[in-house]
Amino acid sequence: MRIDSHMHTPLCGHAFGEPIEYARMAAEREINLITITCHIPMRWEAFGQAGIRMSLEQLDDYLVLVRDTAEQAKPLGVEVLCGIEAEVYPDEAELEPMDEILAAFDFDFVLGSLHAQCRSYIDWLAKNKVKKDAMKIDSYFRHLKDGAESGRYDSMSHPDVIRTYGVVNHFNPAEHEEVIRDFLQAVVDEDICMEVNTSGLTKGDYEVHPDPLILDWASEMGVKLTIGSDSHHPHSVGQFFDVIQPKLRDKGFTDLHYFRGRQRQVIPMPGGS
Ligand SMILES: [Zn+2]
Ligand SMILES: [Zn+2]
Known about the structure:
The protein contains nine helices and nine strands. It has a seven-stranded parallel β-sheet, with helices on one face. Strands 8-9 form a two-stranded antiparallel ribbon. The protein is of the alpha/beta class.
């Protein structure tokens, strides 16, 4: 069995192609289960760019879209689950509207993402006088740890994405080992998952999220993994999985996980093609 647990729909305003096209690509690439994880609605001002998230009013459409896709994808031999990519943010009050959504809708899977490039996070760093890169990186992983401990999320996604969008300069995770291991320990203690996200290989410093060194620590500490292509276009479904999954196996990860009805499911780590 092969899975891809992170992909988007045009509802977010920055992804392309209908979900059924993603399902067709999955079938072509012998992936039998995909989880669509569109971005959860958030205030445009918080992101700093208009039209980059679906609106609250579109959530019902989203659920219908995924349900219809699931029906259409059955003959292709692809199961389609309905997830959501939720936000991690330091200010709990900011997360209240999101918590209402998570309580009101039955998602199969909830990703937790700290998009460090968000206007609201940049503002938070400035307001709290977090100026140097080293401090920003430590703050970021502390917030991910808090997110892991919040009970909101099933898997913490692209866990070192702060390195990608110019928020900080290139850094060596070894210089932040303690705070990163604290985050990983929280994932283990809370019995949730961390995502391996292959979209990192297409941008920034062209490396998987999280960095291979972080994956070594995660393996040693017993972190459970989900995997996602973070596709914003059908052609990215399952991108680089054939390269990454054997590497994960070499690192000692024998299993992969996905979620149905918020319940963790386990499969053997797939090999190459
Ligand atoms: Zn996106
Ligand atoms: Zn994301």
